[in-house]
Here is the input.
Amino acid sequence: MVKNKEPRGVKKMHLELRKVQIQNIAFGEENAIRDHVLYLNKDSLTEEVMKDKRIKKVDFDIARPGESVRIIPVKDVIEPRAKLEGDIFPGIFKETMEEGGYGVTYALKGCAVTTTGPIVGFQEGLIDMSGPAAEYTPFSKLNHLVMVIEKQPEFDAHEHEQMVRMAGIRLAAFVGQLAVGQEEYESEEYTWDSIGEKYAQYPDLPKVVYVYNCMSQGLLHDTYFYGRDSKQMVPTMITPLEVMDGALVSGNCVSPGSKTTTWHHLNNAVIEECMKKHGKEINFMGIVLNPLMVSLKEKYRDCMLTIRMAEMLGADGVIISQEGFGNPTTDLMLVCQGLEKRGIKTVIITNEDAGVDGMSESLPDSVTEADAIVSTGNSNATIMLPKMDKTIGVLSDVAKTTGGNVDSIQDDGRLLIEIHGIMGGHNLQGNTYLGAITI
Here is the structure.
């Protein structure tokens, strides 16, 4: 007779996020944080970035809130982070990796590593640190370490994009290490239970699942999950704590206003709100990461699996955030329709492309079941921006950005663009100042 073994102890997923506030960035002789100022040595930054031999040249600049500075074309924005033990952005730097969502993570709040350089496609955008465009994006409130990269000539567009993305992530991890050991920080702690435990919690509260759509469509349209290109994946259940630890990294150059940067992944507004309301208004059950694919067959398959996983998590309600525009709206609508037909109340977050006059069809696809929509506004609305005293990057690239054209630069130096062209201008996780109401 074999005796039953005692159940093994289960290590709960527990994450402490230590937020170190940065109020300014300056170049100096050493890398250090003193009195909320991030001091950085250019030579050490260059040495770190130039470890990638595909890079021909790199330079650095600083942009601060309120300055007359324009950054263009912006590729990615990354919040510097580090682990007390282990690696931030797991799966990016090594073959081996540890699961995200455990231990202590440091975050440098109020600053970002921002990448720019020669444009590959046409879907990059701008950040203005002052003026009317600054009112549309949270990025104007950050202190930016801007990295301008030039590649070696023999590498193609795919390697160019991958090289710039990874350089930004590498530098954000390098800078983030300066937070480790800082004694002044704001601490938030999170625990994530098993599905069984969560199902039994808060029986009187609705069980809510977040469907996290991510771009997975090739060059200029990538997301990396634990270092793996998401177009090689099927929908997957993940936890919010993994997202906070950098398990998701942006490779996305879709319309800058709606693109999900790495900063947006690390500071996902839907996750933050669901965590705040967990145990009070909702029982937050988890996340289904849904890759947005190219072919209709792939879309049907992934949407089917996403719907099934939401049901397996016991969802009474689902929130779906969009990424990109155009054919990804089909994925958004298919999942919404399937969930609603199963009696699961669904809310979707999307922007609108209603034309410069607001009179065009707002969405490229729709279903009657999509009757609860949070709109982040009309991305085609135009705005006239003042001339800035300083441009980091190449202003003429506005002709090749979404929201801009060959006539964007005015004779007096002003800039006429659509809201599309402002990085984070109508972010589809709702991390934006732009919205819409029914009148």
